[in-house]
Amino acid sequence: MDEQEFDAFYTGSYRRVTGQVYAMIGDLDEAQECVQEAFARAWQHRRTLRRTEHPEAWVRTTAYRLAVSRWRKVVRSRRDPDRAVSARLESPDLSPDHVALVQALRQLPEAQRRAIVLHHLADLPVADVAAEVGAPEGTVKARLSRGRTALAALLTDTLPGGSHA
User: Fold this and answer.
1) Could you tell me the pTM of the whole model?
2) What is the location of CATH 1.10.1740 in the chain?
């Protein structure tokens, strides 16, 4: 992958991958930093990336792993990982519904959240989600089912017109 191809890849997928990682981890600033780092690593591994069938999945997986690694460091250092939540959620590109969705996703178990984001936001078929997360397809289907049920209940309570009970 030459410089022009890589620039086109970056330009065409940065926002999409950032949105997906944001939905998985619930922190926009962290998602942006991790996706940028993942693209930097992708540039270093561009020969390998050229042979990869799904380079965007490689970047997304790398960004997600970076975010998990960074989160673990925060937990170990006993800093509050949810500091300044309201500041992180403010962005001119994010609608109130999108923010509510990400907040609801944050309440799901990590495996369910990741499956939902990859399947519904990244539009990956179940087989591709299973390959990316390293789980059997049946497990991914169960995570999707449970996650959608939990998410529907959470969103009913938080979106406009919901019960707000």
Assistant:
1) 0.63
2) 1-84
CATH for 1-84?
A: 1.10.1740
Has residue 161 got a pLDDT over 70? no
Check: CB of residue 63 under 8 Å from CB of residue 35: yes
- CATH ID of 95-165, from 3.30.450.40, 3.40.50.300, 1.10.3210.10, 1.10.10.10: 1.10.10.10
User: Which CB contacts under 8 angstroms, 24+ apart, belong to 110-116?
Assistant: 111/135, 111/143, 112/143, 112/144, 112/146, 112/147, 112/150, 113/23, 113/24, 113/147, 114/24, 114/64, 115/140, 115/143, 115/144, 115/147, 116/143, 116/144, 116/147, 116/148, 116/151
What mean pLDDT is reported for the chain?
82
